[in-house]
User: What shape does this take?
Amino acid sequence: MTPQVFWSGVRVEEAMRRVAEGSALTDVALDLCFSAPGNFSRFFKEHTGVSPSIFKRAAREPSPVTVTGIPREQSS
Assistant: This one.
């Protein structure tokens, strides 16, 4: 693994964490040393398959998996 591949992985993991937490995309881009938000968006999409805004929206949506449908044991 080259250093560039390693650091790209570190950056994308940190970006995913920060975006999922709800941080402003411009702040994430600048904090991770991207020269422009557009460069960050391209990098994020290349590595995750989705744009940061779609990723952020999906992170805010409730999970479709719930425990309410699990039947409880009935006591006699």
User: Anything to note?
Assistant: Residues 12 and 43 are 8 Å apart (CA to CA).
